[in-house]
Amino acid sequence: MSRVGKKPIQVPDKVKVMIESGKISVEGPKGKLVWDFPKEIEVKIDGSQVIVNRRKEDKISYSMHGTVRTCISNMIKGVTEGYTKALEIHGVGYRAQVQGKAINLQLGYSHPIGHPIPEGISVKTPKPNQIVIEGIDKVKVGELAAEIRSYLVPEPYKGKGIRYKGEYVRKKAGKAVA
Asked: What residue ranges do the domains of the chain occupy?
């Protein structure tokens, strides 16, 4: 049995959870999220708790049990606290700035890269070499951060590129040392 899936999810007072025919909607102070959960899983509200159970005892139900519970927990945390990912840009002349509904990245290519910002996500650039992504949906925040990072992944010789805040890039010795 799934250790994660067995745990009930505590719902704070300021959050409303509704379940209707395979959909769960969570509404809180920061916004509202709706998600279609798999039909193999049964979700119930018991007072101020959400309980997740399997309908059948097969492989798909086993694998989805803990996943569904974690997704619902992430939705509740998102509408109360929100999620944040911070990126750092390392390299001379590399910078980012938000322009309307897009983020403009100058990463040493012959042209600037404009990446659109999805609905429900806010992006800030407190410094030209820092990007802060905030939102209530954990998946969207993480996906946008990964897409921006993929434009220039940190290279191992000088460490230039876009990295998550606090990420350590292991540097290799150059040709002269080898």
From this structure: 3-80, 83-164
- This prediction has a pTM of 0.89
- Starting at the edge strand found earlier in the chain, the sheet holding 83-90 runs 121-124, 130-135, 83-90, 161-164
**What is the architecture of the domain spanning 83-164?**
Alpha-Beta Complex (3.90)
- Using CB atoms within 10 A of its CB, is residue 44 exposed (0-12), middle (13-18) or buried (19+)? exposed
Max intra-chain CA distance, the chain:
67
As a whole number of angstroms, the distance between CA 174 and CA 129 comes to: 26
- The model's pLDDT over 136-167, given as tens digits with 9 standing for 90+, comes to 999 999 999 999 999 999 999 999 999 999 99
DSSP summary character for residue 171: P
CATH 3.90.930.12 corresponds to the domain 3-80: yes
Contact 150, 161 (CB under 8 A): no
**Sign of the CA dihedral with 34 first, then 39, 40, and 41 last:** positive
